[in-house]
Amino acid sequence: MRVARRCYPSRWAQGSFVACCLSLCAASSLLSCPSLCKCNISSLQVDCSGRGLTSVPPNIPQDTRTLLLLNNRLSSISGKAFSNLSSLHRLDISNNFLDQLPSQLLSNLGNLTELRLRNNSIRSLDRDLLQGLPLLRRLDLSLNGLSQLPSGLFDDLPTLHWLTLRSNRLQNLDRVTFEPLSNLETIQLGDNPWECDCNLRDFKHWMEWFTYRGGKMDELQCTLPKDLRGRDIRMVPVEMFSYCSQLDDENSPGPSDKPGPPCTKASPAPLEPDPGLDCPQRQRYRPASVRRAIGTVIIAGVVCGVVCIMMVVAAAYGCIYASLMAKYQRELKKRQPLMGDAEGEQEEQRQISSVA
Ligand SMILES: *[C@@H]1O[C@H](CO)[C@@H](O)[C@H](O)[C@H]1NC(C)=O
Ligand SMILES: *[C@@H]1O[C@H](CO)[C@@H](O)[C@H](O)[C@H]1NC(C)=O
Ligand SMILES: *[C@@H]1O[C@H](CO)[C@@H](O)[C@H](O)[C@H]1NC(C)=O
Ligand SMILES: *[C@@H]1O[C@H](CO)[C@@H](O)[C@H](O)[C@H]1NC(C)=O
């Protein structure tokens, strides 16, 4: 209202018509509320819960801090649905029917601190979905159909404190995926069909390290193998996994994967130590920073190699050119008419005689 009153006809005549209209349009888009939603101007909250929505309403005010889309019938979301909401702090899309999320869905939400996707039908996540969320603290992915997580999914979440993956279809997890979550305090992993075999061994080590540094986690009960069913994997002694290192060695006969001296040296006991379990960080475990460093080294190597080859080629070209020119000059001299040479000789003789 206040903005509209500023647009007096006299001013329009003075030429500020365009500027005034633009500001009016901008202001009205900030103040308007999507028809099916309730907007609280003071808390900048837009509540579109329980409206039977099948798509995200357009024109959500750009300065919205909290957007609630719970209990609707959303089965897909366009990649641009939230692209104007860079001020968004909390986003809750729980209790819908989402199964696939576009990889760029959250890419403009640099202020997001809380994301709730509980109770949907999400079966897989794009590796890049959570990139560009430097302030995210809480992430709820519980009650979905996730059977695995792409490695690299959590690489750029330095502030994540709380994560739940309860009630999915996870059978095992990769330690490398969770390694970058250096500020994680609570993780919930219960109610998944965990297979407590070699594939979960490295993740068991991560969980032990996580609880050792004060992290909280719920029960993680094995579903398979049968003799471990119902047991919490953290209570399963490491000796149960000692056969895994033998399997590793059989499966990868490469020389670099043999239990090397660094693993066996650590234990002074005369007993044969278990190389796989005493040394869980073998070659395969590489956190994001190491992977990036390796990439940099490879690129630097390639660039240096190319420069070296170019220098060698240039040097060879120079040498060949120089020798060809020398040869050419020699031949040119040989072919010169004898007259010129005779004159030269006469000249020399004259000089010699004058000196004498
Ligand atoms: C709007 O949000 C403020 C702060 O959270 C709250 O005190 C107020 O009751 C809300 N107003 C309405 C109409 O819900
Ligand atoms: C985002 O803002 C632009 C320009 O204000 C507008 O054209 C577009 O419709 C908005 N997108 C959504 C999804 O609201
Ligand atoms: C999950 O969402 C569906 C559909 O919105 C709802 O009917 C159901 O009660 C929800 N379940 C839980 C456990 O929240
Ligand atoms: C966070 O929100 C503010 C406005 O509330 C905005 O100016 C800023 O660009 C946002 N930051 C990011 C990283 O999107």
TrEMBL record:
Keyword rRNA-binding among UniProt keywords: no
Protein name: Leucine-rich repeat and transmembrane domain-containing protein 2
Residues covered by region (Disordered): 247-282
UniProt-listed Gene3D superfamilies: Ribonuclease Inhibitor
InterPro entries: Cys-rich_flank_reg_C (IPR000483), Leu-rich_rpt (IPR001611), Leu-rich_rpt_typical-subtyp (IPR003591), LRR_dom_sf (IPR032675), LRR_TM_domain-containing (IPR050541), LRRNT (IPR000372)
Residue span, LRRCT domain: 192-245
Keyword Transport among UniProt keywords: yes
Organism expressing this protein natively: Xenopus laevis (African clawed frog)
Transmembrane region(s): 293-326
Signal peptide region: 1-27
Chief location bin: membrane
Topological category with respect to the lipid bilayer: Single-pass membrane protein
GO CC annotations on file: plasma membrane
GO biological process, one term: potassium ion transmembrane transport
Keywords: Cell membrane, Disulfide bond, Ion channel, Ion transport, Leucine-rich repeat, Membrane, Repeat, Signal, Transmembrane, Transmembrane helix, Transport
